[in-house]
Amino acid sequence: MRTPVPEYLQEVIDDLTDIRDGDVADYIPDLATADPERFGIALATVGGRVHVAGDADVEFSIQSVSKPFVYAAALLDRGFERVLDSVGAEPSGEAFDELSLEADSHRPKNPMINAGAITTHQLLLGEHATGEERVARAVEFLSELAGRRLEIDESVKRSELDTADRNLALAHLLRNYRVFSTGAHEVVEGYTAQCSILVTARDLAVMGATLANGGVQPLTGAQVMPGDVARQTLSVMAAAGMYDAAGTWFSGVGIPAKSGVSGGMLGVLPGQVGIGVFSPRLDSHGNSVRGVEACRRLSTDMNLHLMASDAAGSASVRDIEYDDNEIRVVLQGTIQFSGAENIVDRLQHIEPGDTTILFDVRRVDRFLDVGRRMTLEGMRRLRLDGHPIALYDPDQRLPSPDMGDGHFPEQRA
Amino acid sequence: MRTPVPEYLQEVIDDLTDIRDGDVADYIPDLATADPERFGIALATVGGRVHVAGDADVEFSIQSVSKPFVYAAALLDRGFERVLDSVGAEPSGEAFDELSLEADSHRPKNPMINAGAITTHQLLLGEHATGEERVARAVEFLSELAGRRLEIDESVKRSELDTADRNLALAHLLRNYRVFSTGAHEVVEGYTAQCSILVTARDLAVMGATLANGGVQPLTGAQVMPGDVARQTLSVMAAAGMYDAAGTWFSGVGIPAKSGVSGGMLGVLPGQVGIGVFSPRLDSHGNSVRGVEACRRLSTDMNLHLMASDAAGSASVRDIEYDDNEIRVVLQGTIQFSGAENIVDRLQHIEPGDTTILFDVRRVDRFLDVGRRMTLEGMRRLRLDGHPIALYDPDQRLPSPDMGDGHFPEQRA
Amino acid sequence: MRTPVPEYLQEVIDDLTDIRDGDVADYIPDLATADPERFGIALATVGGRVHVAGDADVEFSIQSVSKPFVYAAALLDRGFERVLDSVGAEPSGEAFDELSLEADSHRPKNPMINAGAITTHQLLLGEHATGEERVARAVEFLSELAGRRLEIDESVKRSELDTADRNLALAHLLRNYRVFSTGAHEVVEGYTAQCSILVTARDLAVMGATLANGGVQPLTGAQVMPGDVARQTLSVMAAAGMYDAAGTWFSGVGIPAKSGVSGGMLGVLPGQVGIGVFSPRLDSHGNSVRGVEACRRLSTDMNLHLMASDAAGSASVRDIEYDDNEIRVVLQGTIQFSGAENIVDRLQHIEPGDTTILFDVRRVDRFLDVGRRMTLEGMRRLRLDGHPIALYDPDQRLPSPDMGDGHFPEQRA
Amino acid sequence: MRTPVPEYLQEVIDDLTDIRDGDVADYIPDLATADPERFGIALATVGGRVHVAGDADVEFSIQSVSKPFVYAAALLDRGFERVLDSVGAEPSGEAFDELSLEADSHRPKNPMINAGAITTHQLLLGEHATGEERVARAVEFLSELAGRRLEIDESVKRSELDTADRNLALAHLLRNYRVFSTGAHEVVEGYTAQCSILVTARDLAVMGATLANGGVQPLTGAQVMPGDVARQTLSVMAAAGMYDAAGTWFSGVGIPAKSGVSGGMLGVLPGQVGIGVFSPRLDSHGNSVRGVEACRRLSTDMNLHLMASDAAGSASVRDIEYDDNEIRVVLQGTIQFSGAENIVDRLQHIEPGDTTILFDVRRVDRFLDVGRRMTLEGMRRLRLDGHPIALYDPDQRLPSPDMGDGHFPEQRA
Q1: A/C touch flag: 3 or more CB pairs below 8 Å
Q2: B334 interface with A at CB cutoff 8 Å
Q3: Helix (H/G/I), strand (E/B), else coil: D122
Q4: How many other β-carbons are positioned within 10 Å of the β-carbon of residue A406?
C-alpha cells in the first residue's frame, strides 16, 4: 500500500485550484511574470517524512518567508539579549502603521515586519561582518535548514533593488535612530539578496519541520539551532507572522505561519509538522490566497491547531505488573511534564515495602529533562519507602540516572 | 511515596514569596483590604489530578479572569457567528488605546478587554434574557467549570458599582454604536456581579484544565462545552489575554493566561494543564506580580510552553509482528494526525499478499477523528493489496470501523 | 438709498439655494423634521449694524454652536487657570479619535469637542452650583450675547436625552478620570439643555460680533466679557472649531467658525463681523452644507480672511503742519501698535528746538494701551529735545496723558 | 527725537537674556559650535520700517524657517492645485507621529513638517528642473524676500548631509508612495542646501513683513508673490507652524510663527509686522527658548495677536458736510469690507433729491476691491435717488469708477 497523505494533499489542491481570486504581485517584473496557476503543497513531519503534491518542487524567491529563519540565525549568532536589544517581539497591530517602531526605543516592534527583518539581517554574524558575509551567512543557514544548497536569483534581486525605496526609507530611519550604523544601501542590498533566495514548497516544509522539531533538521538529523532558539522563533512567528490579522488567524487556523509576496507560505505546528505552500495569487493583505485556504483545510481536516487539546496525553505508564518478587513499571512514549506527572501519580499507589521495583523504559521514545527529573524523584521516594530500585534500559534512554541522593538504580541486562 | 508535584509547587511559593513589589488594587475598599501576603498555586491536569500549595483554597473575587469563561458561555448560548458579530478576536495592541473598538464596525476588538467583556456578558442566554437571568447563567456556568457551587460577593459587587464610571462609559458607548441595546446600567451591574464571583486558585486551575481538556471537566467528566468552543476561547486568550505585552509573554512564558485585579491568574496549556495562582500585589499592567513569576517558573521548570516541540510525538505503532499466518499491528497512545501519519507510513512496508493483518488497538487511548479516518484508510489499502483485515478491539476504541468502501474488518474476540 | 449689504446676502442665498446635497440630522425626531429648505444668513458688524436675508429669523436649537459661548462663560466664572486645568486648547486632529482626551492628563483636548464641551458646561458658576443653576447660567449668558431673552426647546431636549448614550459615555469617562465629580446624568442633562436653546441666524451673527468686538455687545454696548476672554474663545475656535479639517478651512476660508447639527453656523472675524447662517442639510462632517459655502463666498467676495494683509494699516498721522510758532501733529483712527509705530517714526523728523508741538487727537477713534504708551513716549522724547508739548483733546480720547516722567502736556481748549 | 521701538526691543533682550534654559542643537558640529549667548531681535513693518536690537545682524543658517518661504515659491512656480496635490494643509497633531503622511493619499500633511518641506522643495520650478536649478531658485527667491543676496553655508550643508538619514528615509518613502520620482539623494541634498542659506534676524523680519504685506516686499516695493500666495502661506504657517503645540501657541501668543534648529524664529502678523529672532538655545520641541519668549512678550506688550479685536475699525467716513448746493462725503483710510459697509450705511441717511454728492477720496490710502465695488454701488444708488455724483480724486485712488450701469461720476479737479 501507499500512504494516503500525498493523495490527501492532492485532494486539497484539486479542491482549491478553482480559487483564482487575488493577483500576482506586480511591483517588479520578475514577480509579475510568475505563472498564477502554480500550486504546490508539502508537509514534513518531525519524524523526517515529507509528503508533496502539485508544484511542490517549483522554485520561487523566498521573500518574507525568510524572516523567521534569519531571525533564528541572528539569535544564534548574537544571542537573545543582543537581538532583543534591537528588535522587539510584540505584534505591530494596525497594518497602516507602516513603520511600527516602538515609541520610545525606536526598536522595530518585531522581526516579521520589514523594519525588523532589515535589522535582523544586519545583526547576522557580528558587528564587523561585511555585506557579502551576511548574505553568505543567510544562504548557508537557510541551506542547512532545507538540507540542500540554495541559490540567490540575481535577476529578482536586481529588480527588487530598483524599487527598494520603502526598505531604503526604513534603513535610513533605523540608522537615524541608531538601531544600527551600517550603511543603509548596503543593508538593504543584503536583505534583498536574502529575499531572493530560491526555495520550493518542499524546502519550506522541511525548514518548518526543523523549527517544529526543536531545531533538529529531521532529514539530516543535524541540530541546526538549539531548542530555545526554535521556540523563540516560533513564538514570534505566532504573535506577529500574520500581520494585523493575528487574532483571527490564531483562532481560525491556529498554525503559526509566515507568507511571502512571491506566493510562498510556511506553517509550523510545534512537535508535529512543517507545511510549505506555493501559489502566487495574493489577497489584499499580501498573503497567498490558496496558501491561506490550504492552511485552513489542513487545520480543520487534520486537527492541526495550536490549541487542539488532544495533542498530548498518551498514558506514559503502560503497565504496572505485580510479581511475587518484583513490581515491574513499564513506561512508554515521550516523557514530558504531563507524562511524568502521570507516572509519579501512579507510583503513589505502591505501598511501602521491600519488593524491588523494576523500571522498564525500553518503550520510552525520549525523556525530556523535566520528565527525567520527575521520574528519578519518584524512584528516590520509593527507595525511601524501602524498595530497592532497578532499571531495565538497554538503549540508555534515561541518561545519568542519579536519584538525586547519590544512589543509582541497579542496572538490569 | 507521595507525588513530588505539590512539593515542587511549595518550592515555587517559597522562592517567590520574598517578592513584595507592586501594590494591592486600591480603587475599591473591598480590594484594598486584601492581605497582600496571600499566595496560593494550584495545578490541575487534563487527567483530573489537582495539586495545590499555599493559599490555594482562599477565596477572592474572580474579576477579569471571568472573561474567557463567560466568552465560552456566550459562544455556547449564541453560536460563533452571533458572538463574532459583536466582539472581535484581535489583540488590541497599545494599552493606552483605552476603548479598543474597531474603527469601522465599532465592535470591541476582543472579549479580554472590558468593552468586549461587557458585550460578552450581555450576549449570555439570548436577546430576551433579563439582567438577573444573565447573572444566574454566569454563576451557573462558572460553577459547572469549577465543579462546585460558586457565590457572588455582594459587598465587592456593591463597592465596584460605586466606581463603575469607566464601565458605564463603555456600556453607553456600545449602546451608542448599537453593539447592543440593553440598558447600560443593567449590563454593567450584571457584568460587575460576574466579576464578583468568589473563586480559589484551585478553582481556577480546574476551570483552566477544562479548557485544556477540550471542554471536558476533568473531575466530573462532564462535557461542559464542545471542543471548538474551548479551542476558540484559548485562541483568543492566547492572542489577547495579556493586553499589550502579548508577544513578550508569548515568547517568554508561552502559556495562554488571564489575570484579574484582585490578584488571581489563570494559565492554560492545551492538552496538559490548567494553572491557578492567587497573590494580590499587582504590577503596573495590573497583573499579579507573583502570578506572572509563578507562570514563568512553571514554564521554564516544567517545559510548559505552547511552542515546546516535544509535546507530541510518541510512536503510535508499538510493534508490527510477523507470524506465519498473520501480521499483527499493535497500536498505542492517542492517535492524532502525526500518529496516524506514522501508522500509514509503517504500513507501506507491508508487501501485497493474502496474509491476514490483525490490528491490535487495545493499547490505544483514543482515536481522534483524523486518526480514525487515516487508520481505516490504511486498512482499506491493505485490503486492496489482497490482505484480509482483522481488528482486536475488546474495548471498542475504534468506533464505526467502516473502511470507507462498505467493508468492515473481521472482529476478533 | 439703501445699503446694498442685505441684497448681497440675498444674492448669496439665491446662488446657493440650489445646493441640496447632504441630509438633515436624523438621530432624533425633533431634528429630522426640520424643513431642509430653510436658509437664512445674517451679518453683524462690530459697529452694531445687522444685515439679514432669507430665514434669518427662524428659530432652531443652537446645538454645538453653543460651545464657544459657554466656554467664554466658564472662563468668566472660573478664570483661565481653572478652566485650562480641565480642558485643553489643542486641535484634536483625527476625526475618528472619538474621545480626544489627552494621553496623560485625560483632559479633553479642547472645548469644541463633546468631551470638552460637557466639561465646560460643568465648570459654569462654581463647584457647588446645581444642575438647574448651570443651565440657567448658560441661558442667561447666551441671552446677554444675543441681546434678547432666549428659551430652551424642551421637546428637543427630551428627544436628545433619549439618545444621549455617547455623551453619557463621555461624562462617565470624565468622571472616571476625575476631570469632574458631578453626576454623569446631571451634567449631560444640563449640557443637552444648553444645546436646546433656541436661536436665529440673526442671534448668532450678533453673538459672534460680540466676540469680534472684544466682548462688547455691539447693540447694547454692554461689556459682556473682558477682551482676553473673547480673544481666548476665538483662538480656540480658530484652532479647533472645524474638527479635523482645521487647516483646509483655515487656508480656504480663513474665518474662525463653529457649526451645529441642527444646521446653524457661526463665523467670526475679529475686529470686523459676526456671521450667522442657518440651513439644516449637513455634510459628512456634520457641518451645514450651505453654511460652509456661504462662509466661503463671504470670505472670497468680502475679503473676510484672518490672514488678509489689508485689514490694518491706515495712516495714523493725518498731517504734520508747521506754523511759525507751532508744529501741529494731527492723529486719526484707532491707534494700535502699527499706528503708533508709524507716529513715532514720523516724529523722528522733527528737529530739536523750542517750538511748541501740539497733538490734535480729535480725529482719533481710540487709543489702545500700546498706542497710548508709545504716543506719550514720543511726546516725552520731543520734550527732552526742547519742545514744549501741548494736547488738543476735547473729547478726552487720550486717558491719563502722563509722559512717564511726571510731566503732562499743556491742555488746549 | 528717536523712535523708542529699538529701545523697546533692547528692553526685551535685556529682560530675557538671563534665560539660559535649553541647549544648542548638537547633532552636527557646525550647529553645536554656535555661541549660545547670541540674541537678536528685529521687527519690520508693512510700511517698510525695520527696527533691530542685539545680534540682529549675525548670520545663521535658516533651517526650517525656510519652509514657509519655499512653500510660497512652489505655489508661485506650480500653482495651488499642483502643490496641494502633493502636500496637504492640515496640522499634523501628535509630535511622535513622525512621518505624518495622510493615511490614504500618503501626501505629507503639511509643508511645515520635514516630509512636506522636502516635497515642496522638489516642486520648485517644474518637473524637469535639475537639483542645482531648484537650489538656485530657493536662494534667489529668499534673496528677493530679504532684499539682499543670500548665500549658502557650504560647511553647514556638508555636515548636515552626513547625518541626513531621517530626511533620506522620508525622501525614499515619498518616492515609494510616488509623491515624487526625483532621486531621493538629489532631493535631500537640495533641501539641505536650502536649509543652509545664511540669514539674519533682520532678514527674517523683512521676509516676514513681505508675507504680512500681501506679498509686497516693503523695502523694495516689489510684488514678490501675489496676495493669495502670501495668504495661503500664512494660513498654513498658522495651522501647522508650531508643530504639536499649535493650539496653545495660538491662544497664548497668537502670532503665526516658524522656528528653526539653528535658533532662528519668524513671526508674522498679517497687515502689520514681520518679526525675526535669533537665539540658539532650544527647548524640547526644538524651538528657540528666547525666541518663544520674545514672541510672547511682543504679543502681550504690543497687542500683536491674530484675534485682537482692535486691529481694524477706523471710521472710513471722516465727514459728511452739507453745503447749500453740494453734499461732500470725505472718506479716509484703507477701504476694506468693514469700512465700505460703514460708508454705505452712512449714505443711507441721505434723502433722495437732486443735490450733487461729491466724494472726496484724497485721504483714502487704498481701496481694496471689495471696498471699491461697494463704494461705487453706493454711488449708483444715490444716482438712482436723483443725485448727480462727483468725485474728487487727484491721485486716482479709486480705479475705474464705473458705477456698474455704465455711468461714471463727474471728475473734479
Answers
A1: no
A2: yes
A3: helix
A4: 6
Q: How far apart are CA C321 and CA C317, in angstroms?
A: 11
CA atoms within 13 A on the CB side of D390: 17
CB pair distance less than 8 Å for A173 and D184: no
Cα(A224)–Cα(A230) distance, integer angstroms: 9
What percent of chain C has pLDDT above 90? 62
What pLDDT does D97 receive? 38
CA–CA gap between residue D294 and residue D302 (Å, rounded): 11
Three-class SS state of B256: coil
Q: Compare CB distances from A232 to B92, B251, B332 and report the shortest one's residue.
A: B251
Which residues of D are catalytic, by number? Answer: 64, 67, 191, 243, 261
Q: Which three cell numbers stand for residue B187?
A: 449590563
Segment A297-308, tens digit of pLDDT: 998 888 788 887
Cell of A115: 523594519
Q: Do A348 and B232 touch (CB under 8 A)?
A: no
Instruction: Give the model's confidence band at A102: pLDDT under 50 very low, under 70 low, under 90 confident, else very high.
Output: confident
A contact test, residue of D167, D172, D185 with most A CBs within 10 A = D172
Q: Please write the tens of the pLDDT for every residue from D353-393.
A: 999 999 999 888 778 888 888 899 899 999 999 999 999 99
Residues C258/C67, Cβ–Cβ less than 8 Å: yes
Sheet with C317-322: list strands edge to edge.
C317-322, C326-335, C356-367, C389-392, C410-412
Please tell me the number of Cα atoms within 13 Å of A123 on its side-chain side: 28
Give dist(CA C216, CA C43) in Å, integer: 16
Contact C311 D312 (CB under 8 A): yes
C-D C-beta contacts closer than 8 Å: 279
**DSSP secondary structure, A250-289, as one string:** HHHT---EEE-TTSEEEEEETTTEEEEEE--EE-TTS-BH
Does chain B touch chain C (at least 3 C-beta pairs within 8 Å)?
yes
**Alpha carbons A253 and A225: distance in angstroms, whole number:** 27
ipTM (interface pTM): 0.86
DSSP A351: P
Residues 106-125 on B with a CB inside 8 Å of A are 110
Catalytic sites of B, residue numbers: 64, 67, 191, 243, 261
Residue of D nearest to A104 (CA): D96
Q: What is the pLDDT of residue A86?
A: 96
How many interface pairs between A and B have CB atoms less than 8 angstroms apart? 277
Subunit contact B314:A333, Cβ cutoff 8 A: yes
Burial class of residue C54, CB neighbours in 10 A (0-12, 13-18, 19+): buried
pLDDT, one tens digit per residue, over C100-153 is: 677 777 899 899 999 999 999 999 999 999 999 999 999 999 999 999 999 999
Q: Which chain B residues touch A355 with a CB distance below 8 Å? A: none
D266-277 core/surface letters (b: 16 or more CB in 10 A; e: else): bbbbbbbbbbbb
Q: Report the C-alpha gap between B376 and B384 in whole angstroms.
A: 12
Cα-trace Rg, chain B: 25
Q: Residue C232: is it exposed, middle or buried by C-beta count within 10 angstroms (0-12/13-18/19+)?
A: buried
Cβ C337–D232 below 8 Å, yes or no? no
Cβ C175–B184 below 8 Å, yes or no?
no
The model carries a pTM of 0.86
Which of C46, C65, C156, C261 is an active site residue? Answer: C261
CA triple B242-B246-B249, angle to 5 deg: 85
CA distance C204 to B88: 45
Whether residue D101 contacts residue D249, with contact meaning beta carbons closer than 8 Å, is answered with no
Q: Which of D89, D84, D83, D85 is closest to D126 using CA atoms? A: D83
C-alpha D192/C-alpha D122 separation (Å) is: 12
Does A231 touch chain B if contact means CB atoms closer than 8 Å?
yes
